[in-house]
Write a structure and sequence with these properties.
Order of helices and strands of chain A: EHHEHEHHEHEHEHHEEHHHEEHEEEH
Low-confidence stretches of chain A: none
Number of strands of chain A: 13
Distance between the termini of chain A: 20 Å
Number of helices of chain A: 14
Oligomer: homotetramer
Shape of chain A: globular
Strand order of the largest sheet of chain A: 2-8-7-6-5-3-4
Mean pLDDT of chain A: 96
Strand content of chain A: 15-25%
Radius of gyration of chain A: 21 Å
Largest interface: A-B, 52 and 52 residues
Largest sheet of chain A: 7 strands, mixed
Helix content of chain A: 40-55%
Chain lengths: ~350, ~350, ~350, ~350
């Protein structure tokens, strides 16, 4: 029997509808670098979904290059970006932000989230410190939604963050590498809401059914006025830019982006409930497509014979934290099989 | 009648065999970041083609990110890279090299090529200058093959460059964004020869029939020992790395990479000869898939009604230089149609 | 009566012997950029004091430029530097390290010091993490001696740090902005000992009696082989380099560097004991020339009428932490006057 | 007899009046980082001399750090700075500008100067090029006054540069490392005129009689709004900032800055005329304190036995270009002695 894979949500290619569209358009000749009509249509669809006719939108290939380009494009030379200590830009991007010359200023993460009160205190303390001109000015606030732990900010929390950012003149940037899963899990927050709250955010494609691609949205359209040379300088301007346009046009036609995410959430919920029912406690209470459990090493070792998934941090002595991730193609029977494998172990 | 497009060689998607392979493997689940078996097989095929069993190979998405990552990965902080003034890294990458902190040191380009004698003089003068420690040390030599003007170094020239680079302890880096066309046009120089001569080079996919992708080859395997964090830091580590592996596996199976280039060269030669026969003189004598002609503006204006192609530099008063590019899918009838359109103009 | 100043140790010019030497040599003509004989003699004196005939030594103007140049000169592109979260490079250098492209990786500070066990765990966890190639590799360990809180590592602690650094192939770098005070306060550790333990360190002049200037020492002489272009690139190569040579020659003649520090320590100890005797508890138990006390705001406000000193962090509601700093010119009567001012307040 | 030195203008310490003032103020205690009263007074004097009450002024230690800080502080991420190919930032600063991430865009130098027509053409061609968003945008124009060859722009040329800079929205930055000599040699252009023409410039101290120090002037006061963190980040914020204030206060009291320069110009003119009278032709017709002559190697070799001066570029086969530099302390007899030494050779 084939091994089940729950390592991550970018193990497959793309959703079949995307592949089909890429196939169908393959022989067409279009101008490069995102000046084609597919890209234009994709932007239009996203602007509509965001309720932001003024939004400026551009596409890049992956999350790290998107974060580095956006953050570098916004910050002035003496500024840094605030993030949770568990934030992707602080931990898992090989120092891509620092490589552009900017410090990542960390706040303690709470299940991956920054606390609005702690954020406000950080800003207040900064400007109250007599030596603040010798310190890195916080010029941007970075959050991920969902976070690296699959958790979600509430609407109230996002509004609080927005208020503080505005007060201290620091734009709010939301990393939506897995945005679809967040939107599917929390109906309070959709793209229109995000467009009201964030100064800039990106809609992740790579981890939500595309071959690759992330769509940066600047709802009010003011930030990063000269984006093309900036993106080019960061090595992030795709020659055959239409590949990004075609994918996002497909994702935002007939609600595909949402459907992809919903399947993953449904499956993740079945997995989570199945684990809880069997007596395992979640390491973190995630409502999205990443599920974290602390399992006995004995269970992990046996389960890894028939299913793959990742350690989250170093292996412990008796038990360890592991992560299971679902995607658009995970089937109900995959979860059932996994759970039955667990039953056979115990 | 549909307009003909000779703007560039990245206007279509990918060669059908590549699309087919991407389609066929789409639902498989593989580990990310190039640790999959397709990528492994692609590396093996390239190593064989290069006759370099020790070669280290890694894949990136586009040319600018490849240049920035490789050059930054090799140079020490105080070093710069020598290039022709017309070199892609000096002109058309929005300062991506400087953004990593390194100066591009220019030599005059001769139809896009640097002259070995001028290179040797540059190094000699540099180390003879009493103030050289206040100047940027030339730590790498960058050439493009074919050049930005479609021209090619001879084997003798490449060997001379190699000797000088060795003498002055500066690796030789060959930008092969359009390498296939160079290999198809000059049988003296194949991947084995390049692997003997260059310290590092890349095999371009984006402009030679792939959807995207460039394969960096370090024949002796010593340079850039820690490539993964470097690539990640540059935002150039593709999550679904197998997309690159699959494409290069396909390109290096049954000589596809060569066949793609050969068609483009055949078509470009037909175009060139047709133009010459009609009394137009090439702006530069290019043996590859880019052809440059100085045409009367009147001819350009009329021709652009039925065919697209690019100005090379600013439009002149009476006549201008324009570029025609062919690719794997250009057909004999496309060239014939273009030439007959010219006939109708004159 | 003139106000007393305990704000910091760089409020005056230079020790009179230094001024005298600068005055006496003023009209001499010497070659620039540190190629003069004064600089040569200063290097010789420092090499002797360090017992390191092979040591490479170079001089820069200030601490931040020294830290940025040294750290940038040692790290490879993908590496970062470990420091205590309270470390000067992490807090008070306006992101100078990140501006060179490198992340500061923080460990919790314990009265300004990093704990060897926590350092070892950091390295171990790093290399045990499956995703470490996506994280910033710790390529250097930075400590300050004395720390920003005036505290000192014991010889045992330094040896433990050295062992760990060696084990994980990361050089140990000691920021000695106030090194003199540390040497004067702890006889176990002198320049010979530091030259055994550290891979690179600097002897601070600016805060220890010079007009300005820091002397970087690489005891084994291997690191940073091309220092001149690196220093020049960082804007840190003083044209009249002999100004640094003359100052350090003077500081290391007849033990002036030590004498300067000893006076400051003696005065700081009198101040500390005087405060303790009056019932105030040190915020941190510092053996060097910086003394930190938590005082009632009422006392602070009154005392600031006749003496100046700095808040350490934001002002509290009832009481605040303040810092008193002594230097080579602080006199016994200055301390007595300060203490009597306190007596008059209470 | 002591050897005469004409190597450069930074071989001595400082003008005696500066040394005296440093000596007299040495024991005073002032706050750090340029917040002292000496610095405030120096700024006031410079503002008056510039006729720019709104001018923002800050001081740094040396030319390279000043250029890097100012240029980095003005440019946006995707922009570069235009300079003559012979410009100091392009040749002799070890890539300090590129190290901050910005390209130096070169125009051909004409005796060290850029030609206004060529500048205008550069801008025009840039914005007329269809691919300009893939190229480095010229965001600043750098000139040196005097140039590296001692030459001077005329008022008409400066006004032309200003007009073009304004038209293309690129500030004009004047590197005044040797500004005093330029002001003394051309009465058309004084600090008031420069304050009208330039968006930012610096008044060099290091090469004009100070121990060290350069004063950046932003006449209209808008550029680089957050200068302190920027300067700190570049390692260029002097702890004992008053050392810079004291020196510039002295230089701008009773016209000392001008007097220093005038002596150098008088001596340089004597030297120049003496050489010409003896049949040597200037390599470049410099009106300032640097004089360039092409001399037979035999003359150079003999003259170097009794006087020191620098080769300008590599030594030729029969003759070579050499540079003689005068300063505030060069005496009439020094020139006479040099000329008589030449007479003895011939």
């Amino acid at each position: 029997m084939a091994k089940l894979h729950f390592d991550t949500d970018y193990m497959r290619g793309a959703h079949p509808l995307i592949m089909e569209k890429l196939f169908k358009t393959n022989l067409e000749q279009t101008p490069g670098y995102g000046t084609d009509e597919y890209t234009e249509r994709a932007k239009k669809l996203i602007r509509e979904e965001c309720g932001s006719p003024e939004a400026r939108i551009f596409f890049m290939v992956g999350g790290t290059q998107t974060n580095a380009t956006v953050i570098d494009g916004i910050l002035r030379h003496h500024q840094g970006v605030i993030a949770a200590d568990s934030g992707h830009i602080n931990v898992h991007e090989s120092g891509a932000i620092e490589a552009t010359g900017h410090k990542v200023l960390t706040l303690p993460g709470h299940d991956g989230k920054i606390d609005p009160n702690e954020l406000e205190k950080y800003f207040t303390d900064f400007y109250n410190d007599d030596t603040y001109e010798h310190m890195v000015e916080p010029g941007l606030v970075y959050i991920s939604y969902p976070t690296e732990f699959g958790t979600l900010y509430s609407l109230k929390e996002l509004k609080a963050l927005k208020r503080i950012c505005k007060k201290f003149n620091a734009p709010l940037y939301l990393d939506g590498a897995r945005l679809g899963y967040g939107l599917a899990a929390n109906p309070d927050i959709n793209l229109k809401v995000l467009s009201e709250i964030c100064d800039v955010f990106y809609i992740g494609g790579t981890k939500v059914g595309a071959l690759f691609g992330e769509a940066v949205v600047i709802p009010k359209g003011k930030l990063i006025p000269r984006s093309i040379p900036l993106i080019k300088q960061h090595g992030a301007l795709l020659a055959k830019g239409r590949l990004l346009g075609i994918q996002f046009e497909t994702l935002f036609t007939d609600g595909l982006y949402t459907k992809i995410a919903e399947n993953a959430i449904t499956r993740a919920t079945e997995l989570k409930e199945g684990f809880i029912k069997r007596g395992f406690r979640p390491f973190i209470d995630s409502p999205t497509n990443q599920q974290f459990f602390n399992l006995p090493n004995k269970v992990i070792d046996r389960l890894m014979e028939t299913a793959s998934f990742e350690y989250w941090g170093p292996r412990g002595r008796e038990s360890s934290t592991v992560r299971f991730v679902t995607d658009w193609a995970t089937e109900k029977t995959d979860i059932e099989t996994l759970l039955s494998q667990i039953d056979q172990i115990s």
